[in-house]
Structure formats: structure tokens, C-alpha cells
Amino acid sequence: xxxxxxxxxxxxxxxxxxxxxxxxxxxxxxxxxxxxxxxxxxxxxxxxxxxxxxxxxxxxxxxxxxxxxxxxxxxxxxxxxxxxxxxxxxxxxxxxxxxxxxxxxxxxxxxxxxxxxxxxxxxx
Length: 124
Hints:
This protein is of the alpha/beta class.
């Protein structure tokens, strides 16, 4: 077991997006944590962190780690104009909506830490 399930979602434009879903064995009622990688990185960067958070003995939390389009297991977008923050933000919201996540906490590295999807959508 890798500790996560690979999940795939259609973006607004039909491109296939990938996320790792680290679901805890016990539901502690804590907000899910969405992890957003840096510009040229992917969901694998969060693996050890996601395992620690999702398997915490006192307060486990569901962790979703995204692969932006063209990275990790998400499909490559042939339209270079779609590699921008606005499209990535829509993709994050699309994945959260598909998972039924109306409130989330966010963690990110580099560009993922400053991503507009984090602002106004979730709480820590």
C-alpha cells in the first residue's frame, strides 16, 4: 500500500487531472488539506508529509495532493496558453468540487504556496 488512491478528474476543458487522495482510516472531522506543488513539481513532493498528516494518531486529516496539468500523472495540455495561474486555479477548484470539498486547508510549496486558489476558499 502506498497510503493513497490515485484519482482522476476532467478539467473544464476535458483535460484529465490527477490527484493523490490520502484518506485517513478514522474521520477526525478536521478540514481536508489540499497540497499544491511548485511550478515544475508534482504531488509526489508531498508524499511523506501527506502520510504523516493522514495517519496522525490523535487528529488524522484527509490530504489531497494535486498534479497540475502537464505534470505528474495529469495530462499534458497541447495549448501552451493554458499553463497559467488562472487555469491552474480553475483546475484546483474543479478537483475540490468533484471531491465535494467546500471548505479546505491548503499547503503549498513555491508557486503552490502563493496560488490564488488558496485565497478566500479555505481555512486552516
